[in-house]
Amino acid sequence: MSDFETEDTEETVTCLRIIIYHPKQEESPVFHALKFCHNQQLRADDVVKFGRDSNICRFPFIDARVSRVQFGLQFFRHFNSSEFGFEIKNLSKKAKLIVDNIELGYLNKVSLPDKCMVCFGEYQMLLQKQEGQSEDYFNICFELARKSLLQEKNLFLKKPVCESSSSYTQFPTEMDENE
Amino acid sequence: MSDFETEDTEETVTCLRIIIYHPKQEESPVFHALKFCHNQQLRADDVVKFGRDSNICRFPFIDARVSRVQFGLQFFRHFNSSEFGFEIKNLSKKAKLIVDNIELGYLNKVSLPDKCMVCFGEYQMLLQKQEGQSEDYFNICFELARKSLLQEKNLFLKKPVCESSSSYTQFPTEMDENE
Predict the structure, then answer these.
(1) From A69, A77, A135, residue closest to B45, measured CB to CB
(2) Which residues, other chains included, contact B76 with Cβ-Cβ below 8 Å and sequence gap of 6+?
(3) What is the reported pTM?
(4) Do A107 and B79 touch (CB under 8 A)?
(5) Least CB-CB distance to B77: which of A87, A105, A135?
(6) Distance between B26 CA and the closest CA of chain A, angstroms
(7) Residues of chain B with pLDDT under 70
(8) How far, in Å, CA of B64 to CA of B26, rounded?
């Protein structure tokens, strides 16, 4: 308390809000390893991985159809700017990663717009960046969507992108998890 | 031997040749943790870090003036192409990273041209990509330069970029390691 008036001004922290949806989220444990509505602080210089293998991935999905490592997110600073951004890279050989209308194959990467849809398999994520100042950390905060984000955003007319060698499709389908 | 004729055709592996120079490399151990003239295989989905801290960095420099993590290299695939590339990101708050004529601050990143000079502090590196097909691995191969690469390449006229808060300069200077 005594240091309160003389301490450095507290920095704001860039936050990536991730609103997430999976058509089977009610009956299957796909998101059981995620904390919702909670800012999770991450180091600015780390690559944050998402996928099935919790030994490698900071944010695991409990789903046999997800790749061990599905994608990676990294934080960076734009040139000649105080503004930060995020880059996403597809680390799955089996599934395409769709960022708005861009299809990323294995090892393709792209800088994320401040607000965008990211989809793979039956997973839908709406990512939104909230500006901050810290160059040491950023936050990720997950929220669970109650219904399909694609339906809500009238994005159903987007060209579906399927991969013949994979059971993943861009849109929710009635597939048996065990088939 | 019996499988030789029926095995899959061996893939070529993308290789990043790094010819490296430090003005005190003869009398100080800066490069003692590096293996020279030896292909070192790295996973395509990892970020390879260079810096002082060997717990974090795959390629450590033994030099108190180097940041714990100086920079990171990642492998990626160009869009709609079978070609791979490398991206470099400055992970040091103290030193600028110079890629040809581009100055990278902390958390700035850039895709590397197929052949380029990368400098930080008194370190000079000539990076050259050799194309390969593997999407699982890439190689890094270090070579030691006997004299300054900047002198050799007539790059001395490039604008020097100094950081007032740091003892790093872009060009070799006669500084005492212990000062």
Answers:
(1) A69
(2) A89, A107, A108, A109, B84, B85, B86, B87
(3) 0.82
(4) no
(5) A105
(6) 32
(7) 1-2, 152-179
(8) 17
One-letter amino acid for residue A96 of the chain: K
| SS3 call for A150 | helix
How far is B77 from B133, CA to CA, in rounded Å?
11
Task: Report how many Cβ contacts below 8 Å link chain A to chain B.
Answer: 47
Joined together, the tokens standing for residue A97 give: 């990663």
Please give the single-letter amino acid code of residue A128.
Answer: Q
Which residues are within 8 A (CB) of A130 and not within 5 positions of it... i.e. 6 or more apart?
A14, A15, A16, A17
Asked if residues A47 and B87 have their Cβ atoms less than 8 Å apart, the reply is no
Q: How many CB atoms lie within 10 A of CB A167?
A: 13
Residues of B engaging A, defined by a Cβ cutoff of 8 Å: 44-45, 47, 69, 72, 74-79, 84, 87, 89, 91, 93, 105-109, 135
Q: Using CA atoms, how far apart are residues A6 and B81, in angstroms rounded to an integer?
A: 55
- d(Cα A89, Cα B18) in Å, to the nearest integer? 25
CA B22, distance to chain mean position in Å, is 13
What is the number of residues in chain A? 179
Banded model confidence at residue A164, pLDDT cuts 50, 70, 90: very low
**Secondary structure element (H or E) that encloses residue A96, with its range:** none
pLDDT digits (tens, 9 = 90+) for A5-60: 888 888 999 999 999 999 999 999 999 999 999 999 999 999 999 999 999 999 99
Lookup result for tokens 């590096």: B34
Q: Tell me the nearest-neighbour CA distance from A159 into chain B, angstroms.
A: 18
Please name which of B53, B22, B16 lies closest in space to residue B120, comparing C-alpha atoms: B22
